[in-house]
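Hi F.,

I've been meaning to write this up properly since the lab meeting, where we talked about keeping a consistent format for the predictions we share between groups. The idea is simple: the sequence comes first, exactly as it goes in, then the structure tokens exactly as they come out, then a line or two of notes. No screenshots and no reformatting. I'm using this chain as the first example so we have something concrete to point to.
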Amino acid sequence: MASPQCCANPPTLNPAGGEGKVVDSFGGIRAYVSGAAGSKAAVVLVSDIYGFEAPNLRKIADKVASSGCFVVVPDFLHGDPFAPENTERPIQVWIKEHDAEKAFEEAKPVIAALKEQGASSVGAAGYCWGAKVAVQLAKAHEIQAGVLCHPSFVTVDDVKEVKCPIAILGAEIDRMSPPELVKQFEQVLSSKSGIGYFVKIFPGVEHGWTVRYKNDDAAAVKSAEEALADTTDWFNKNLT
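Output, unedited:
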């Protein structure tokens, strides 16, 4: 069940935002792309329920791209992000129509397209809803590194099956992945030999804090920037 925290602080979507560009088809799906297409390292960002037009998500994409990766943010929601003002379609209804498993399947040709254009290693970062997609990719040998930011619907069994280095960034105040669950994830990862991991619980922040913060809230911006730095460092360390 999705928590009200999944819907808090909705962004003002901007289809023209970011320093990159939107392409009609990348691996068969509309996407925002940023960075040098010839990069050996590539990253797929999987949005939360508000989709690929969220300004802070595109800011993350541009920042990760500035570290040398080619970044693609596919529109796995197909132009249908969650709209909190639509009272006839609450989150419980919307979530049933947007299956993370379907997005996982759609991500495979995106990753294949990245490899066709020269990427030798691919990472994925998922936010809230998108973290379920990212962990599925990490379980399936599709990526070489993963980052889960305040994950939704990710289970201990998912983490047990992870096949690549993975970072999990949790929030102190999170009903979807409370600190107790994130600590369970860490225990599972610590018992897996040969899989690199990084687990961190950010104090004083709520579910969604890495992408759904207010730019005029200095403390929120600082926490989001710290999470972004951890994400970029993880990819720099694990993607070649």
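Notes:
Strands lie at 21-26, 29-34, 41-46, 70-74, 121-127, 145-149, 166-173, 197-206.
The chain is about 35% helix and 20% strand.

If this format works for you, I'll send the rest the same way.

G.
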